[in-house]
Amino acid sequence: MANTGRIVAGAIVPHLPHLVYAESPPQNEPRSEGGWEVLRWGCQRFRKSVLAKKPDVLLVQSPYWLTHVGHHVLGLSRMEGFSVDPFFPHLFRFGYDVTIDAELSHLIADEGRKEGLMMKVMKNPDFTLDSASLASAYLVNPAFDIPIVVLSSNHTCSRLSSQAAQEEMRKLGVATRRAVEISGRRAVLLAGNSLSFRHFTKEPDIPEDMSQERIFDHNQYLWDMEVLKMLREGRTRELVDCLPDFLAAAQARAGAFAWMLSALDFPRYPAEVHAYGSIIGTGNAVVEWDHERHSIPLAAGGGR
Amino acid sequence: MKMQIASGVPLTACYIVPGLPHVLLAPERSSGWRSLRNAFETVRREIEESDAEMILYASTQWHSPMGYFILAEPELERTHVDPNWYEFGSIPYRFRIDTEFAKAYSDELKQLGFTVRAVKGRDYPLDTGSVVAQSLLNPDSRLPASMISCHLYAGKEETLSVGEAAMTALRKYGKRAVVVIVSGLSSRFETKEIEPAQDRISSATDDEWNRRILALFGEGRLEDVSSLAPEYARRANADLGFKGIWWLSGLCARTSEFTGRVFDYQPVWGTGAGVIGLYPKYR
Predict the structure, then answer these.
(1) Could you tell me which residues of chain B have a Cβ less than 8 Å from any Cβ in chain A?
(2) CATH number of this structure's domain A6-294, picked from the four choices 1.20.1600.10, 3.40.50.1470, 3.30.190.30, 3.40.830.10
(3) Residue A63 host element (H or E)
(4) Does the pLDDT of residue A274 top 60, yes or no?
């Protein structure tokens, strides 16, 4: 293989099904009257930016594909089916037909093993794609005409100390970057990740009733703003050091986040925050790292 | 005051069973998994020979963050694949749901102020635990089933109340039920590939605590297990804080009026898996 692949962009993208529901695409059975526009407009801006780069593949780290043992990737070249969100079955009942970049999946598994990670490749044809990976992928590329790679969330990581879990995800990020380079692909990484994650436990009668939508509490809001400030100032290493506090204070889940930042080699350039908003009280953002533009050597005016 | 289960209780028996796919799909790979499979077989026969008219499941693998889910689709027929052990194969399953009871139970919970969603749609993704239990205990869907999710944020008192509401609904409904809690014991998985034949409980402390809990179950002391659950969860990383037991305790009037039987205790990928029966003394 060419060994000339590169990660052209990375992004934090919401994974909850509400934004897909709000758009009422033909693939999704439930219909809505809209909702969460600011986040959806942010997704549209990011979509325009990233699709212009003509990526070969979108890599999604899904918080809903929970695995007890190791990190898993999809190893089938095509997956077709119907996915229902286990927590919001009234919002997400989604028919899909997607192409998987199984070759890249295998490369990630190989490189992960070299990092000492436990890696598995899923090849059972009856496997159903989870709603979170579909939601994140849909928000970036609703046509689903670019192959995807989906990585699981290793549940065991959440039981390790925060530092140990971050280290595990850092290794997965390194392995992902190396696999992309070997593959020759132009890849976009999508961390399906909310920011703060305390949420309401009651839904309004109309799920898209925006008069009921707000961040869960002020503390979460302050944490979210602090995180976004660091990202906008390119302080990703500092953020990773702060993650244990963020996770504890805002009930956040940051596995995908750490994976992506590691794969991007902890960018020091400012991230573009396309949108921030809440979904059932959780903090969500659309944040882009235009890695291709910022990877131009310093002498040419760029630099990480 | 010591509480008792009132006579005329509409329960034939309660069982606590593990919900990992190994026992169903790959029993031949480990003597422990095979042994658990045999224990499931014994329980299945007991259920068949009982006068139960329905089977009521609560699985610690079916999580709901927004209140409670109760299955309300009359029939579910799908193929399930475990998200971690998919290489063991697919699990075709069929559930015949007792939708009348689902409504009765939902109504009880709503009256108590809980948020409840009746889950409809034939494509709803059931959890591995429910599917494994159904496949091994009620394989032809002979008994109509009802299922409630585990609310992730519910504490002890709430979970006890939700269990109590199940008993109230059962009494009003007037059918005899067998109750199945799908829950592991200690849940510290081996984090690497293992040779199934070498499977063992991943921590000696977990093993010690599992055995302590099993001894109580063997004496039918459900209420004592319920009281110990927080400490057990902390010391042995019990499955979802062992909160499934609170639900069962609530359903059984917070008593220990049982005859207990531990059918088996084995490791499954480092976790503790027990097949346990509790039989009400007052029927």
Answers:
(1) 63-67, 79, 81, 83-84, 86-87, 89-90, 115, 117, 119-121, 123-125, 127, 151, 153, 188-193, 237, 269
(2) 3.40.830.10
(3) strand A57-67
(4) yes
Residues of chain B with C-beta less than 8 angstroms from the C-beta of A68:
84, 189, 269
B41 phi, psi to nearest 5 deg: -60, -40
Q: Do B262 and B276 form a contact (C-beta atoms < 8 A)?
A: yes
3-state secondary structure of B12: strand
Q: For A197-235, what is each residue's pLDDT tens digit? A: 888 888 999 999 999 999 999 999 999 999 999 999 999
Judged by a CB distance cut-off of 8 A, whether residue A41 touches chain B is no
Domain parsing of chain A, residue ranges: 6-294
Contact B33, B18 (CB under 8 A): no
Backbone phi, then psi, for B176, in 5-degree steps? -85, 135
* Segment (H or E) for A221: helix A218-232
Dihedral of CA atoms B199, A62, A223, A220 in degrees, nearest 10, equals -90
Here the ipTM equals: 0.92
Residue matched to tokens 């869907």: B141
Assessment of whether the complete model's pTM goes beyond 0.90: yes
Q: How many CB pairs under 8 A join A and B?
A: 80
